[in-house]
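I'm stuck. Please check this protein.
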Amino acid sequence: MTEALKKLIEATKTLDQTKSDKEQQRRSFAYGNTKFENDRITREMVDKQAELLSKGAKG
């Protein structure tokens, strides 16, 4: 690992993520893991389900 990369990693440890950042990361994680298993999954599908879940709906 380069010294520059080590510095970047250390710098990120002190950053506070916003609620929006965390939600975006959660959706990206969900998309990446589901897409790996099913090529028909789209980001739009993940976003739609995340919106439904945030509203307490089931779908």
Summary: The chain has a mean pLDDT of 92. The two ends are 44 Å apart (CA to CA). Helices lie at 3-12, 19-37, 43-54.
